[in-house]
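Sequence in, structure out.
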Amino acid sequence: MNKKIIGAILVFALILTAWAVMNMNKEPEFILLSTTTSTQDSGLLDYILPSFTEETGIEVKVVAVGTGKALQMGRDGEADVLLVHAKASEVEFIEEGHGVERFDVMYNDFILVGPQALEYASIGETLEGIKNNEAKFVSRGDDSGTHKKELSIWATAGIEPEGDWYVSAGKGMGDVLQMANELRAYTLTDRATYLSMKDALELEIVFEADALLLNEYGVIAVDPTKNNEINNKGANAFIAWLLSSDTQEMIGEFGQDLYGQALFFPNAK
């Protein structure tokens, strides 16, 4: 065989080998999603995220914390995209220039659960009854969306929650439900996490279906100018996928086979 042909074949083989080695060592693209614990504890993320990775090739690394912490990670440039549920705080986050734009994703509601039924006409009266009877109440106490909602309801009812009966846990929703179960206490929870854990709890719904208990979720891409590590392209791809009709349909279907009802209701515009 001609030496020039042999040389060309060898060079081509070396190029292919180098390309293969480079791609073996190259990490797959990923985005860092900072989100509330309810999307993780309910099982929603495990249900929908594999489809995103399959469609885009982008891996999603999830950090599930309280909404307050998730927003702070965005402020610090430690996440690419946020999926959270405290709309007033989210709007403030955007207005301060930390995020690009907020989009509605889905909603469900908060419920009050506890060891026994309470006969009151409103959520405010129910909380007042808990306080007056010094029944145990476990608060998230972690600046999460649930904690923010709980504090706003106490404030609307004109009640200052304090005393030995009021326990501030500083933990996620799943841990707080387990703690309330052990203490025979009341707590405010998102419906999705409660339903996903209901069979392991001796807690029942004691109040629901109040306008104050609406629980809205939004998605926000973090301002990409914060640092060079933020994957804005991946964040935008995730948002577009999350708001797409196919993904919205998946969200609406989640939970129906196990619980006989949807855990989240899609509302992307």
